[in-house]
Design a protein that fits this description.
- The complex is a heterotrimer of chains A (about 290), B (about 270) and C (about 325).
- Chain A has about 290 residues and is mainly alpha-helical.
- Chain A is built from eleven helices and two strands.
- Chain A is about 75% helix and about 0% strand.
- A two-stranded antiparallel ribbon of chain A has the order 1-2.
- In chain B, the strands form two sheets. Chain B has a six-stranded mixed beta sheet with strand order 6-7-8-3-9-10, sandwiched between helices. A four-stranded antiparallel beta sheet of chain B has the order 2-1-4-5, covered by helices on one side.
- The radius of gyration of chain B is 19 Å and the shape is globular.
- In chain C, helix 2 packs antiparallel against helix 8, helix 3 packs parallel to helix 8 and helix 3 packs across helix 13.
- Chain C has a single domain, classed as Orthogonal Bundle (ABC transporter involved in vitamin B12 uptake, BtuC).
- Chain C has a two-stranded antiparallel ribbon with strand order 1-4.
- Chains in contact: A-C, B-C.
- Chains A and C meet through helix 4, helix 9 and helix 11 of A and helix 6, helix 12 and helix 14 of C.
Chain lengths: ~290, ~270, ~325
């Protein structure tokens, strides 16, 4: 029983990170139909940025702030320089652009940072908290807490502010949004900025547990994408649930079946959803079939 | 006289519902070889949906379609072409990055005899087949009056030419029955006249033509029989004059203006 | 006249052959010949992809997976099953073809970025298996590969490999050009433009797509086998996501659907890192930048853009 609980804790923790990445995917996808491959790299910028800033003497909160701002900057640049000029391109071209962007960001990260694994000290210490025969890391609470906080904040923003509603409107029908005077380009830029911020924050709180390196973005992006698909592409609630599910499935798979193929779980899940559950769990936009 | 022992096309009680809405509801009609059969009705009446049902793009929730006696309900589109049914599309599904003649050459696909292996190895048979196909395609382009534009990129052709290109491509499959979705849409009077002659020509050669059309003059002039659809249901079916004079049809669709037009066409 | 030559079917092949003869005349250094051989190998793999993406309009972001299958068959066969390496090259192609057939049927029902992601997932899973089944594949460090013998002649040395890989590429290019000018090629191009209309002419769209997918897999597997035999060593890196992306980049940068363009693209992406060895750190950043710039500004690719430019200005 305690082993089971332990796996649940680990699974939810890593799942929360996937959920945040999936949420970032969903934001951008909803606003623009673009699948942003560089999503995972925002996580990396948050983590690596904070590590290096702290190493040069800054406090954790300040380093985090600057790293997140940097990530947002990268997100906005990505939108302005790579996505906007290619408006109207085919889906494959757009994917290749974001893949290129991801490779570029990784390439720059190697130079600006380095190629080693790095970690951050746990925010409130390492003393594991015993619960029901299993132990919970304090950092896990930070991860889960941040995830809940960000999801709630995003919900409030989207549902209760004018700007947020503008984003929802653009997501629902871009032409209509334009016609009522919503500046769609600005909305799209904001979607990128927000996704970057969410991703970067997730990266900061996750680093004490998962470590960080210049190239962790790719795998995170793919798993986050799997989560978004599982929940239903374009559905924010689905993204969160999908993320938690993938985290749990992955951890349980590693614990009970095989730890070598842990990463395969997310990919198998992608294929499973594509073939058997095209609208995802909560009915996102469906996959086109011939 | 319609409905012989085995009509070429026999559609019975075909229907489909999207969500709760019955887009096509128990429609039946028969078409004989060499006949020109028109389907008319207001926008949203379900005409293109009916076409899509007959040509296998949609799966019918009820009813049957028989082609030359064989039950073809639910067969995939590419299999229907083999059995002699070809169609054009309302929204012009032309191969835009290929030339006009290449478009029609693709239409000859079923008559081409080279295997994948032969194609891969570039055997002499492939060159011969290419020549034969090209000749055939040029003949068809000539028939629809597009021969001078053979090597032009389809993407650069004007709308009227594209409509004729689609017909040439459909004829390349040597169909027994041709379904044309709004062949005269967007055509000026000269083009419509040309379309009129083309359709008559095709019917004379023994190919049945089923068309969806909004141009009443054309419909009344060339049709052997007309089916009127409204809100997915059949409203009337019969020779053009009978349909034109049918009070339900006049009320639902033709209206005063249309009835006068029809009168003018038939004198 | 030049315009007519540009349009003739086998011109790309002749230019390619001329190029292949020219390179060793310009330089006999082993290093240069090895780099050129790598260009021919990757061009071969990318050629399959150009048939799939350029002719048939599909996409595969996991193509290096097939390259890995071909490579590892050539590695594993002789060492663990005592088979002849040349036979394993053929066997690798067959295995890749079968896998492509099995996986392709469900996957090709998807379109657009869903197809892209599904193929990506496939590629990653293949790389993962090659990485993890250490007993068979040697794990992350890979395994050594025996020398290839072509009908008794042991292929060894940069010059020999240069000619073997050049020959393989020429054959691959010939086949690709043949397909393009055949009924099958027209069918593929048709379904690229409109699947509905293609089906309306009697084309069995699903089976044509699958054929293109299998052919592309075979190309990649042969290239992979040659790569393994030439290097004498293979690691799971060969089937990695990065390699898949590089293959796609070669095709798109050089020219989607253009045989010669694909070779140009391969040359571009193989030679570039070699030239940047001094700036090795910048390799990834430059690659990423190149991909973005080409995708945004020149999505047609280099060779078709040049050809279009020339055709406009020539009789």
């Amino acid at each position: 029983m305690s082993e089971f609980l332990q796996l649940v804790f680990s699974g939810l923790t890593v799942g929360a990170i996937y959920a945040l990445i999936a949420l970032g995917f969903t934001l951008i996808y909803n606003a623009s139909d673009v699948i942003n491959f560089a999503q995972g790299d925002f996580v990396m910028i948050g983590g690596m940025g904070t590590v290096f800033l702290m190493a040069s003497g800054l406090s954790l909160p300040l380093a985090t702030l600057i790293a997140v701002v940097a990530a947002v900057g990268v997100g906005l640049l990505l939108h302005r320089l790579a996505i906007e000029p290619a408006r109207g391109a085919s889906p494959v071209t757009l994917i290749m652009i974001t893949i290129g962007a991801s490779i570029f960001i990784k390439g720059v990260a190697q130079i600006v940072f380095d190629k080693q694994f790095h970690s951050l000290p746990a925010f409130s210490g390492d003393a594991p908290i015993p619960i029901g025969g299993a132990t919970l890391l304090p950092q896990s609470l930070w991860v889960l807490g941040t995830a809940i906080g960000l999801v709630v904040a995003l919900y409030l923003f989207l549902e209760h502010t004018l700007v947020g509603k503008g984003l929802l409107a653009t997501a629902a029908n871009r032409l209509a949004a334009k016609l009522v005077g919503i500046n769609v380009t600005l909305i799209l830029a904001m979607a990128f900025g927000l996704s970057a911020a969410i991703g970067a924050l997730a990266g900061v709180v996750a680093t004490p547990i998962t470590l960080t390196r210049y190239d962790i973005g790719t795998l995170f992006a793919l798993k986050g994408f799997a989560a978004a698909m599982l929940g239903g592409m374009g559905n924010p609630l689905g993204a969160v649930v999908g993320g938690l599910l993938i985290g749990l499935l992955e951890t349980f798979g590693a614990g009970y079946v095989s730890s070598t193929y842990k990463d395969a779980v997310a990919f198998l899940m992608i294929l499973f959803v594509l073939f058997f559950l095209p609208r995802g769990l909560f009915g996102g936009r469906s996959v086109e079939r011939v | 006289m319609n409905g012989g022992p085995t009509s070429l096309l026999d559609v019975s009680d075909i229907g489909i519902a999207f969500g709760g809405l019955k887009a096509v509801d128990r429609v039946s009609f028969k078409v004989e070889a060499g006949q020109v059969f028109s389907i008319i009705g207001p926008n949203g009446a379900g005409k293109t949906t009916l076409f899509n049902l007959v040509t296998g793009i949609y799966r019918a929730s009820q009813g049957k379609v028989r082609l030359a006696g064989e039950d073809i309900t639910g067969l995939a589109p590419h299999l229907l072409v083999r059995r002699g049914m070809a169609r054009t599309f309302q929204n012009l599904q032309v191969f835009f990055r290929m030339s006009a003649v290449e478009n029609v050459m693709v239409g000859c696909h079923l008559s081409e005899r080279t295997s994948f292996l032969a194609d891969l190895l570039g055997l002499p048979a492939v060159g011969r087949q290419n020549r034969v196909t090209r000749e055939r395609a040029m003949e068809l382009l000539d028939k629809v009056g597009l021969a001078p534009l053979a090597d032009a990129s389809a993407g650069a052709l004007p709308y009227g030419a594209l409509k004729r290109l689609e017909i040439a491509r459909a004829l390349a499959a040597s169909p027994k029955i041709l379904l044309l979705d709004e062949p005269a849409a967007g055509c000026n009077p000269v083009e419509t006249e040309a379309m009129d002659h083309l359709i008559a020509d095709i019917a004379r050669s023994g190919v049945a033509v089923v068309l969806i059309e909004h141009d009443m003059k054309l419909v009344m002039k060339i049709s052997d029989r007309v089916l009127v659809l409204a809100q997915g249901r059949p409203l009337a079916e019969g020779p053009p004059r009978a349909v034109r004079d049918n009070p339900d049809v006049i009320a639902a669709y033709l209206g005063d203006h249309g009835a006068r037009e029809a009168d003018r066409a038939h004198g | 006249m030049l315009g007519k030559a540009l349009r003739a079917r086998y011109t790309p092949l002749l230019v390619l052959a001329a190029l292949m003869v020219l390179v060793p005349l310009v330089s006999t250094s082993s290093f240069h010949l090895r780099v050129a051989a790598l260009v021919w190998i990757f061009a071969l793999a990318a050629l399959g992809l150009t048939i799939l993406m350029g002719y048939a309009g599909q996409v595969s972001l996991g193509h290096a997976g097939f390259l890995g299958i071909g490579a590892y068959t050539v590695a594993i066969g002789p060492v663990r099953l005592g088979l002849d390496p040349l036979l394993c090259l053929v066997l690798g192609a067959a295995v890749a073809g079968l896998v492509a057939y099995a996986v392709g049927r469900p996957i090709l029902r998807l379109k657009g970025y869903y197809l892209a992601i599904a193929t990506l997932g496939f590629g990653v899973i293949v790389a993962l298996v090659l990485h993890s089944e250490a007993e068979i594949t040697g794990g992350p460090d890979g395994m050594a590969v025996s020398r290839l013998s072509l009908f008794g002649w042991r292929v060894a040395g940069a010059a020999s490999w240069y000619w073997v890989t050049a020959g393989a590429l020429l054959v691959g290019a010939l086949l690709a050009l043949n397909i393009a000018a055949s009924p099958t090629g027209r069918a593929l191009r048709a379904l690229h433009d409109s699947e509905v209309a293609a089906a309306g002419t009697g084309i069995d769209v699903a089976s044509k797509k699958l054929a293109a997918f299998v052919v592309a897999a075979v190309y990649a597997a042969v290239a992979g086998g040659l790569l393994a035999a030439m290097n004498g060593l293979i690691t799971p890196e060969a089937a990695s996501f990065s390699h898949s992306i590089e293959l796609v980049a070669m095709v798109i940068i050089g020219g989607l659907g253009s045989v010669f363009g694909t070779v140009v693209g391969a040359a571009f992406l193989v030679v570039l890192p070699q030239m940047l060895t001094a700036l090795q750190e910048y390799e990834q950043a430059v690659l990423g930048l190149l991909i973005m710039v080409f995708m945004i500004f020149l999505p047609q690719g280099i060779v078709p853009s040049i050809r279009a430019y020339l055709m406009e200005r020539l009789p």
